[in-house]
Each structure stands twice: as structure tokens, then as C-alpha cells.
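FAQ

Q: What does a record look like?
A: Structure on top, sequence underneath. For example:
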């Protein structure tokens, strides 16, 4: 025979573990400093400028 458990306690324990896991994911995703965000934006902008500079424009004559 299995161990007898209180379903309310098991449900609440699972909810706490799920909430802790979600909090950890949010800390990784959104827990960056303003300087890190600005640096990432600057790097992305620089890469876009370099890409735009290398684009060729086809001139179509009408």
C-alpha cells in the first residue's frame, strides 16, 4: 500500500515549485541592467548600419 498524502499540501507544494521555476526564468530573461540593455542595442544598431552599407541597390530604368 502507498503512502498517504494530503492532497492540499501536495497541490500547494507543486504550485510553490512551479512559481519558483517561473521566477528563475524571469530573472534570467528580464534581470539585465540598463547598461547591458544599452550595450546590446548599440551592438545591434552597429550591425544593422554595417549591413545597410553593404547592400546593393538595383537601379531599374523605366
Amino acid at each position: 500500500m502507498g503512502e498517504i498524502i494530503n492532497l492540499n499540501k501536495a497541490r500547494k507544494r507543486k504550485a510553490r515549485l512551479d512559481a519558483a521555476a517561473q521566477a528563475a526564468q524571469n530573472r534570467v530573461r528580464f534581470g539585465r541592467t540598463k547598461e547591458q540593455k544599452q550595450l546590446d542595442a548599440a551592438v545591434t544598431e552597429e550591425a544593422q548600419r554595417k549591413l545597410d552599407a553593404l547592400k546593393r541597390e538595383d537601379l531599374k530604368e523605366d
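Q: Is there anything notable about this one?
A: The CA atoms of residues 11 and 37 lie 38 Å apart.
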